[in-house]
Design goal:
Elements (H helix, E strand, L loop, with lengths): L1 H6 L8 H28 L9 H4 L5 E6 L5 E6 L17 H12 L13 H14 L9 H6 L1 E3 L7 E3 L3
Antiparallel strand pairs: 1-2, 3-4
Length: 166
């Protein structure tokens, strides 16, 4: 029996660098497995990724009559399928909501822009100018901050306007 015990080598203590390398390799293996799993889930239509808040905000598509919290009736851009006024418009959009925004910028704020429903460079430039004039972030994107700062024409008084308040 003594020969068996003598044949065994004595274990040496584990080197710290070697231990760290093994830990890093194990973590990389876990990350790689998670990435492969996510790829497979996305491939079958399951997603679990976070998106920025503005990416989730729908695009405004139409202008409809809405009541503000104070009871004023006005036309305002909305996402038509939900009638939500929390929507965005930016360069490249082409619809009736853009056309209405252009009308308001032309008729209420005296910007000389075409009312064609195309959010192009002229509309973006006019919106940036209007946003500066209103004292809000001038990014050329229409969103909730711009919606709340614009004085929208009232439905029943053509030369009056009111600010939308939810």
């Amino acid at each position: 029996m003594r020969g068996i015990w003598e044949a065994r080598e004595r274990r040496q203590p584990v080197d710290r660098d070697e231990s760290r390398t093994m830990w890093v390799r194990a973590r990389l293996l876990v990350v790689a497995a998670a990435a492969m799993l996510m790829t497979m889930l996305v491939g079958i239509g399951v997603t679990a990724t976070a998106t920025p808040a503005h990416a989730a905000t729908p695009t405004c598509t139409e202008a409809v009559r809405k009541y503000s919290a104070s009871g004023e009736r006005m036309f305002i851009p909305v996402q038509y399928s939900t009638l939500s006024p929390t929507c965005v418009m930016k360069r490249g959009n082409r619809n009736n909501a853009v056309k209405y925004l252009q009308e308001v910028m032309r008729d209420t704020y005296d910007y000389n822009i075409a009312v064609d429903g195309d959010f192009g460079p002229a509309t973006q430039s006019a919106l940036i100018s209007l946003q500066r004039r209103l004292g809000i972030t001038a990014d050329g994107v229409y969103g909730p901050q711009t919606r709340d700062a614009i004085c929208w024409p009232l439905y029943y008084e053509p030369y009056a306007c009111w600010w939308y308040d939810e």
